[in-house]
């Protein structure tokens, strides 16, 4: 079983193409099913601890994987009870069912507590389901899942859309403890609301190659430690442009300092800040003087946190964009972006990227409503704006203008508190001013890891401080 970080993500159509490539290369559907079933059986065997298994099989190839797994688990001495939703409808699934000894019960006739004391394995529906589960099927499955000693689903939870992560229909779906992704991660494993239903997600290697995908999950960054030759400016200069709400800009500045920036300047006022923070009154001249002679590869500007909607907000964004330095745009500044600014961003030097960090409301305000998955929406926004778009949320997606995306796996829900977005802006700004090879990805990962370490009921101020420990541990 492979952990989900740093893994490719594919949609239903892409997964079918990957499977077809293997078939064209000489691997039969039956052989792929045998591999998948064997991988599921081995994972379940290791986790069951000798407990009985209730295997639920659907009519498609996902059900076929379940038949194979049930046969192998029984051969390994486990007590396996198998129930089917209906007869198999594919030739490979029929062959898998016929290759198994023992009775096949009717799923609809199972008692709601039939899974009590057993490991439940849901192999009803996998990748590609497009219609809601029948109400009675969803209700019974939910009750069986809740009663199980351990609930495992094969590939994706039955009843969710593989590509968008949406729940199909209005039926309640009980969460699983573990999802066994066959061959590669799917969008439903990382996008809400499906992701929270998946529990822990592990990829099972069944000999398929999905590495050509443009979509991957976020991986732990590889960041170098400072060398003796470094000084405060080579460590990174971060300039935060303040505004009407000084607390937000202060949080961004604090995050930049705690994530390792060598020199942080706040152009604005913020009380009770560390003496290491340089504070100057805002003016275009102060910005120019701060940037004078500084290397673009070791400098970043942050504008937006606490900017407000005053008359000088547009001026501040304009000067930040005109500077030609790497730029982090968040909060109020996002609402001032337009098509002309997108054209200017696209015309920028590749060494001076612009990063946009909208939450859902800001995303809709800047880019409009979208259909399809959050990954596709972020990708389209990056192409349209020419910026790196960090579409924030419990399933944060980083999208690059060239079409690549990186999605962070389930975030700490305690991040849903005021100021954590400002901390993210400062974290990414600090990484933009550093020598990190993938600075935006590093910033998002560091922010999430700090939240994971803090656990629960923390303040955004705590999050900024925790970044020092996270950065130091890499």
TrEMBL record:
Transmembrane segments: none
YjeF C-terminal domain mapped to chain residues: 215-474
Residues at which AMP binds: 392-396, 421
Gene3D superfamilies: 3.40.1190.20, YjeF N-terminal domain
Residue ranges of domain YjeF N-terminal in the record: 15-214
CDD domains with a match to the protein in the record: YXKO-related
Pfam families in alphabetical order: Carb_kinase, YjeF_N
Classification via InterPro entries: Carbohydrate_kinase_pred_CS, CARKD, Nnr, Ribokinase-like, YjeF_N_dom, YjeF_N_dom_sf
Signal peptide: none
Amino-acid positions noted as binding (6S)-NADPHX in the UniProt annotation, renumbered to this chain: 61-65, 126-132, 155, 248, 306, 359, 422
GO terms (BP aspect): metabolite repair; nicotinamide nucleotide metabolic process
UniProt family annotation: In the N-terminal section; belongs to the NnrE/AIBP family.
Protein name: Bifunctional NAD(P)H-hydrate repair enzyme
Species of provenance: Sphingomonas glacialis
